[in-house]
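Q: Given only this backbone (294 positions), what sequence would you predict?
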């Protein structure tokens, strides 16, 4: 009998394998993070776009004015966004948690190299963080909520650990309508997402109802889809092709030589195709959700 593997274990293994110690990584991920980025006028390449997303998040969090906020990044991965924010706002304290052990090791290693003392990185599950009630002024999650098996569990936990009037910022993929109009497309998305260990996507309506039930108010949604796809449709195609081809070339060159970063390339390949699907079909969108705890 094939042993059943719990979906969270699958995600953890996936990220442990992706960022495992000993691999060589492209500096742009270490500096910017592992997400789609935010394209706009003047920001036309991926390296700039991932940096620009961090800048965009910094604006949404409303840090600054000397306020010493406690900020949690839920699903921080290798911690690039938190490092960016920690440098920009030395008066604030940042905590990053993520499921993978290896990505957290890498996050800590870079933090030490950069002598950043206002961050802590911890391996943990965002649906059950172990932090005390009302611990944080801000919680943000960049492309991580989509990995939750039940998104409402994470929203309830974020609400518990946020202080009253604290803000939560979520950036991720959601269905704009309740269900995609075509089951063929829904299956295509799911196939693509499952390759990246993503268990499922919910609609914006569902997210709003989870947020309201968890005691959030002033829920504001922005559609960022065009900042990651539409205008960059053909760019997405070439990024895909390059990622997949370079993964294959590395695999052949490094056959038997140990670990390489071919997984990262494959995922970038997958991401490019996903961008194309997003842009063409508009059945799955990419959104920012900002909400305030009552
Ligand atoms: C696409 S990566 C994004 C990482 C980071 N936010 C960034 O932009 O570079 C998704 C992250 O979600 C994290 N994640 C998935 N499920 C999680 C869970 N249950 N608890 C904590 N983190 C989780 C993974 O470990 C992974 O680092």
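A: Predicted residues:
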């Amino acid at each position: 009998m094939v042993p059943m593997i719990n979906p969270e274990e699958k995600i953890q293994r996936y990220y442990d394998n992706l960022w495992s110690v000993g691999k060589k990584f492209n500096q742009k991920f270490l500096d910017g993070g592992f997400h789609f980025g935010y394209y706009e006028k003047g920001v036309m390449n991926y390296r700039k776009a991932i940096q620009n997303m961090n800048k965009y998040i910094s604006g949404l969090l409303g840090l600054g004015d000397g306020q010493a906020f406690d900020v949690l990044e839920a699903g921080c991965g290798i911690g690039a966004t938190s490092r960016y924010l920690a440098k920009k706002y030395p008066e604030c304290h940042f905590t990053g948690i993520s499921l993978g052990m290896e990505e957290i090791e890498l996050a800590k290693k870079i933090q030490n190299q950069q002598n950043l003392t206002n961050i802590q990185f911890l391996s943990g599950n965002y649906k059950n963080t172990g932090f005390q009630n009302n611990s944080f002024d801000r919680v943000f999650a960049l492309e991580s909520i989509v990995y939750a098996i039940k998104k409402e569990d994470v929203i309830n936990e974020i609400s518990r650990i946020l202080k009253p009037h604290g803000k939560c910022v979520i950036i991720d993929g959601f269905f704009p309508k309740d269900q995609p109009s075509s089951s063929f497309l829904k299956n295509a998305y799911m196939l693509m997402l499952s390759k990246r260990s993503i268990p499922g996507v919910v609609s914006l309506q569902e997210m709003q109802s989870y947020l309201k039930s968890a005691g959030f108010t002033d829920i504001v949604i922005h559609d960022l889809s065009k900042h990651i796809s539409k205008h960059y449709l053909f760019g997405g195609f070439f990024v895909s092709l390059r990622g997949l081809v370079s993964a294959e070339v590395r695999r052949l060159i490094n056959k038997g030589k140990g670990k390489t970063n071919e997984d990262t390339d494959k995922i970038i390949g997958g991401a490019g195709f996903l961008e194309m699907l997003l842009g063409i079909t508009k059945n799955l969108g990419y959104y920012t959700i900002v909400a305030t705890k009552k």
